[in-house]
């Protein structure tokens, strides 16, 4: 029984379509009015989009119903599903807390509401009857001004019991004009002792080498092996891990063919760059983490040894995994102590 670590999952995209449908039927029927039956809604919710922007637009719909009151409802179901159907032992959940605060409030009032959101998410994910170790990654966002993004970093630093790192989200094609600003924000985060990841090199328009030195992990990063493989040795030297989310690139239109990922894995393995396989938006895609692994294997994109290497890399690069070893080794020690496996 392999237990998985999920390093890249958005709260907004983590709600599976059936649960969202039931929620809308009960509380926001206007969202289901265009669909005679559930199947039509599921098709709409999970279908591939033409661009990353179009894809990210869907998050807005879910964000609007994830409020301080409703978050425990969604998170309880998320944790239950992740334990029962995904064999997760570890989960980093990421989102932008500001976008879960009431829209009618002023910016400073909304900033003041963020701590409660983080606490609600933290308590809800820890209260469920599942032995999954969880932590949060707070996302700065390209739609938000500097003051809000800086407040998100401050909050992350103030709540280490719930938060392990910061990220930047909202589309990597929007960094250009504000690149210095985002670099300064990451410098600030590192100065506070925070861990860092960031959506970068996801699309050909999101290639900003200037940001790389500030990231411990790279959200997606697939354009590095595809378009800029000369950067890989530096990544390997810095022990920077790519968070590769295979289904995303088809849903966003970033890749036309999933087989293109074969080059990503080959070049990273050759250069000694670790890859953690992740879902990004397991609900939105209706694809759970074990199937991301299995799909890559059956499509002949990775081999079994590479699959195992990625599973182990995910635990090594997890920001808040508290144990020295991944759970497989812990389980072996319990169930078959005569089997000693080295993961180093
Ligand atoms: Zn993402």
From TrEMBL:
EC number, UniProt record? 3.5.4.4
| GO function term, MF aspect, one | adenosine deaminase activity
Taxonomic superkingdom: Bacteria
Membrane-spanning ranges: none
Q: What class of enzyme is it?
A: hydrolase
Q: Where is the Adenosine deaminase domain?
A: 5-320
The alphabetized UniProt keywords are: Hydrolase, Metal-binding, Zinc
| A Pfam family the protein falls into | A_deaminase
Tell me the GO BP annotations in alphabetical order. Answer: adenosine catabolic process; hypoxanthine salvage; inosine biosynthetic process
**Under the cellular component aspect of Gene Ontology, which terms does the record hold?**
cytosol
The cofactor named in the record is: Zn(2+)
Q: Which PANTHER family match?
A: ADENOSINE DEAMINASE
Give the family this protein belongs to, as stated in its UniProt record: Belongs to the metallo-dependent hydrolases superfamily. Adenosine and AMP deaminases family.
By what name is this protein known?
adenosine deaminase
Native species of this protein?
A: Planktothrix agardhii (strain NIVA-CYA 126/8)
């Amino acid at each position: 029984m392999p237990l998985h670590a999920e390093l890249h999952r958005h709260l907004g995209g983590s709600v599976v379509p059936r649960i969202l449908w039931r929620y809308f039927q009960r509380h926001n029927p206007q969202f289901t009015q265009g669909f005679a039956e559930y199947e039509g809604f599921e098709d709409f919710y999970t279908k591939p989009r033409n661009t990353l922007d179009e894809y990210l637009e869907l998050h807005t719909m879910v964000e609007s119903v994830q409020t301080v009151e409703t978050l425990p409802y969604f998170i309880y179901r998320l944790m239950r599903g992740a334990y029962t159907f995904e064999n997760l032992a570890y989960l980093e959940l990421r989102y932008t807390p500001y976008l879960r605060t009431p829209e009618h409030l002023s910016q400073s009032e909304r900033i003041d509401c963020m701590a409660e959101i983080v606490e609600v998410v933290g308590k809800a994910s820890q209260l469920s009857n599942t032995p999954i170790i969880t932590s949060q990654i707070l996302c700065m966002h390209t739609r938000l001004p500097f003051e809000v993004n800086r407040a998100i970093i401050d909050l992350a630093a103030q709540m280490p019991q719930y938060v392990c790192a910061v990220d930047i989200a909202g589309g990597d094609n929007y960094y250009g004009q504000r690149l210095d600003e985002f670099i300064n924000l990451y410098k600030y985060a590192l100065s506070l002792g925070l861990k860092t990841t960031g959506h970068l090199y996801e699309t050909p328009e999101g290639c900003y080498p200037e940001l790389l030195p500030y990231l411990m992990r790279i959200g997606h990063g697939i354009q590095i092996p595809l378009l800029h493989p000369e950067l890989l040795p530096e990544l390997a030297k810095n022990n920077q891990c790519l968070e590769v989310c295979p289904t995303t690139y088809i849903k966003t239109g970033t890749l036309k063919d999933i087989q293109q990922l074969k080059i990503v894995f080959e070049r990273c393995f050759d250069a000694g760059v670790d890859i953690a396989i992740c879902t990004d938006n397991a609900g939105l895609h209706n694809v759970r983490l074990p199937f991301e692994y299995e799909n890559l294997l059956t499509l002949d994109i990775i081999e079994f040894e590479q699959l195992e290497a990625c599973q182990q890399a995910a635990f090594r690069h997890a920001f808040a995994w508290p144990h020295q070893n991944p759970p497989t080794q812990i389980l072996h020690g319990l169930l078959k102590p005569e089997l000693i496996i080295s993961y180093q």
